[in-house]
Amino acid sequence: MNFCLLLPFMLGIPLLLPCLIATENPKTEEVKHPAGSHLRVRRGWMWNQFFVPEEMNKTRHHIGQLRSDLDNGNNSFQYKLLGAGAGSVFVIDERTGDIYAVQKLDREERSLYTLRAQVIDTTTGRAMEPESEFVIRVSDINDNEPKFLDEPYEAIVPEMSPEGTFVIQVTASDADDPSSGNNARLLYSLRQGQPYFSIEPTTGVIRISSKMDRELQDEYWVIIQAKDMIGLPGALSGTTSVLIKLSDVNDNKPIFKDSLYRLTVSESASVGMSIGKIMAYDNDIGENAEMDYSIEDDSKTFDVITNNETQEGIIILKKKVDFEHQNHYGIRAKVKNRRVDEQLRKYHTEASTTFIKIQVEDVDEPPVFLLPYYIFEIFEGSPYGSFVGTVSATDPDQRKSPIRYSITRSKVFSIDDDGTVFTTNSLDREISAWYNLSVTATEKYSIEQNSAVPVYVQVLDINDHAPEFSEYYETYVCENAVSGQVIQTISAVDRDESIEDHHFYFNVSVVENNSSFTIIDNQDNTAVILTNRTGFSLQEEPVFYVSILIADNGIPSLTSTNTLTIHVCACDDTGSTQTCSNKDLMLSMGFRTEVIIAILICIMIICGFIFLKLGLKQRRKQTLFPEKGEDFRENIFRYDDEGGGEEDTEAFDIVELQGGTVMRERKTRRATRVEIQSLYRQSLQVGPDSAIFRKFILEKLEEANTDPCAPPFDSFQTYAFEGTGSLAGSLSSLGSAVFDQDENYDYLNELGPRFKRLACMFGSTMQSNN
Question: What gap in Å lies between CA 150 and CA 765, rounded to an integer?
Answer without folding.
Answer: 115
